[in-house]
């Protein structure tokens, strides 16, 4: 059983997730955004097994180094965006100087790949490469819980007008991968409220079935 706590971090209200399984003292963090003090308080006393990144836009990695140094845990990212962690130009932090300082972090310890299964918290996390919002966007499926980053939102989708974005890829990722999941799968997006695959198949105006 996966226990999920959500934290809205930074100016763009990015959803960071703190996950625990049967052992409440072991956790996984997804997308540590800016000003992660609340997230770190939630993880106090925990051993964090991994930080999983859905992608490397600045609002999803702004708190990465602070969390990694505090918890001494490895970071996983898709190799298409591994260089983005150290490049304010690639991760977009140079584009919004009123919102964020330039962000550059240490490299990730591990690459992610399509179809990979991560064994964390005594559970299995399936890695799905879901490009479109960015070339290295991934989604993580654990049981009936999907962490979709900025690919699929409640009645919305990720923007594709940023460097590396491509609308055709985004639609293919959603229709060809995410919509093929069971309708009861719960979707935990990078911004906004959670939804479900069944709800989005019926109601998402940007990618109808």
Automatic annotation (TrEMBL):
What cofactor(s) does the depicted protein rely on?
Zn(2+)
Q: Does the keyword Protein biosynthesis apply?
A: no
Q: What's one Pfam family here?
A: Lactamase_B
SUPFAM superfamilies xref list = Metallo-hydrolase/oxidoreductase (SSF56281)
Task: Enumerate the spans annotated as Metallo-beta-lactamase domain.
Answer: 13-191
Gene3D superfamilies in alphabetical order: Ribonuclease Z/Hydroxyacylglutathione hydrolase-like
The source's superkingdom equals Bacteria
Q: Summarize the protein's role.
A: Counteracts the endogenous Pycsar antiviral defense system. Phosphodiesterase that enables metal-dependent hydrolysis of host cyclic nucleotide Pycsar defense signals such as cCMP and cUMP.
**Protein name according to UniProt:** MBL fold metallo-hydrolase
| Species | Paenibacillus rhizoplanae
